[in-house]
Amino acid sequence: MTPRESFIAALERRPPAGRVPHFELEFFLTMEAFGRLHPSQRQFWQWDQMSERERTLHRQDVADLHVTVARCYEQSGMLYHSPGKWKQEDTRLSIEHVREISGMDYLITLHGDATYSLPSGRNMMDFITKLADEPDEMKSEAQRRVDSTLARGAQIKSWGTVDGFCLCSDYCFNDNPFLSPAMFDEFVTPYLIQLVAGYREMGFYVIKHTDGNIMPILDALVASKPHALHSIDPQGGVDLGEVKRLVGDEVCLIGNVNCALLQTGSDEEAAADVRRALAQGMPGGGYVFSTSNCVYTGMDLSRYDRMLDIWRKEGNYESLSLGSIPK
Question: Where do the domains of the chain lie?
Answer without folding.
Answer: 3-313
